[in-house]
Specification:
heterodimer, A: mainly beta, six-stranded mixed β-sheet, four-stranded antiparallel β-sheet, 12 strands, B: mainly beta, seven-stranded mixed β-sheet, about 55% strand
Chain lengths: ~110, ~110
């Protein structure tokens, strides 16, 4: 079985500062990895995804994540936070050949201070 | 193209009643998955339907059921509602057999049980 841990349920940064949201996973086989963002009263929007290949993945809105197999991590970063980045972020995994089923982490609420 | 449409957006039901939620996937998508989101348990997978067949099921009681029609539209039903069923119910549609191939969430149905 797979699991996802997001360290820090709340992260606060100043506008213009680096954003770092942490995600560690546990899986018996190399998983597919995803980051989603959720704005209030909305569904989930895909930021980026990783399956194989280049371990540094670039997504929308200036976000990127690096897959580190040895650390079983997939941390999300953005060099400079914007007020519009304030939202809840979810890391998720799925297993190859297991159909369309995502296992989510508990989420991290990002607050951006002016 | 139109996104994933969930109806209704908001719903209030009384304990003991039953409820049916609807999800219309993106045109051409044959897989529909359902998730429950609560503050306490986070995002949890309910079930997935592919070409009218349930392919995966999460760890939920039998009161939660679903089905998919030949046009790929899906419904989920919750019988004998409990207060703990209050949640945001999200559906996602997928083009292929994995979330990597394109997995889009709807805006959700917020169910309140009183």
């Amino acid at each position: 079985a797979q699991s996802v841990t997001q360290l820090g349920s709340h992260v606060s940064v100043s506008e213009g500062a680096l954003v770092l949201l942490r995600c560690n996973y546990s899986s018996s086989v190399p998983p597919y990895l995803f980051w989603y963002v959720q704005y209030p009263n909305q569904g989930l929007q895909l930021l980026l995804k990783y399956t194989t290949g280049a371990t540094l993945v670039k997504g929308i809105n200036g976000f990127e994540a690096e897959f580190k197999k040895s650390e079983t991590s997939f941390h999300l970063t953005k060099p400079s936070a914007h007020m519009s980045d304030a939202a809840e972020y979810f890391c998720a995994v799925s297993l190859p050949n297991a159909g369309n089923m995502l296992t989510f982490g508990g989420g991290t609420r990002l607050m951006v201070k002016p | 193209k139109a996104g994933v449409t969930q109806t209704p957006r908001y719903l209030i039901k009384t304990r003991g009643q039953q409820v049916t939620l609807s999800c219309s996937p993106i045109s051409g998508h044959r897989s529909v998955s359902w998730y429950q989101q609560t503050p306490g348990q986070g995002l949890q997978f309910l079930f997935e339907y592919f070409s009218e067949t349930q392919r995966n099921k999460g760890n939920f009681p039998g009161r939660f059921s679903g089905r998919q029609f030949s046009n790929s539209r899906s419904e989920m039903n919750v019988s004998t509602l409990e207060l703990g069923d209050s949640a945001l119910y999200l559906c996602a549609s997928s083009l292929g057999d994995s979330p990597y191939s394109g997995y889009t969430f709807g805006s959700g149905t917020r169910l309140t049980v009183v």
